[in-house]
Amino acid sequence: MDSIVLTEELNKKYQTLKDYLRSFGSLLVAYSSGVDSTFLLDTAVEALGKENVTAVTASSCFFPGREHDEAVAFCRERGIRQIIVEIDELSIEGISQNPPDRCYICKKELFSTFVRIAEENGLAAVAEGSNMDDNGDYRPGLRAVAELGILSPLRHAELYKEEIRTISRMRDLPTYDKPSFACLASRFVYGETITEEKLSMVDKAEQLLLDMGLRQVRVRIHGSLARIEAQPADMAFIIEPDNAKRISGYLKSLGFSYVTLDLMGYRTGSMNETLPLK
To answer: What is this structure's pTM?
Structure first.
């Protein structure tokens, strides 16, 4: 890998992050195997030492097995202590109805569990991986983070996603160019009931597209309609007759009645476009 030299400004942010993490002495890091949480966990270990850092990973139907497996592999390869927590989000009151504040309800329950784990293990605080880009979208989960006193070190250091990728590349982290990911519940239009069966449909549909070589893709579910969001450069590939037939046939076998391609392409938080502006 090419040698990466950080700009003075970015190096300052990185040092701010390490100093901030070091000030707590010990941490429980919410770890999902994504770009941000991997970078946060790596930096916490660098700042505090492995003996003072524990990763906690939620295992649930809201996250594909591949993400869980990557999280386990990363911690095992680097000798980082990891706690796996089985979470049944659909049993949490209000989640399956998928209201606009679903993420708040879910994160409040999830991080309350993490706080308890930190206390039981004598860890000073819980840290999560939201970054400065998350401030610009509808993120009700951040309200739960604030209410529970969860640390957001990447936002504290004013780090943006691309900056995190740059430092991750310098640190030779495998996630430096990993596509962004969000929990499978974010594929549902607000108000549509979330079920384990529908979550599996979305997961399998996206896995097919990933297996076909697409990197940044979403399959949004609207009743029995699948709306595929992909990078503009990948759209011609998707609608190529043989590929379109394969994709449509497989998604219909999963239970979708209609398979569509969103002409606006991939974008984060597209389900929030249905919410009234405030």
So the answer is: 0.91
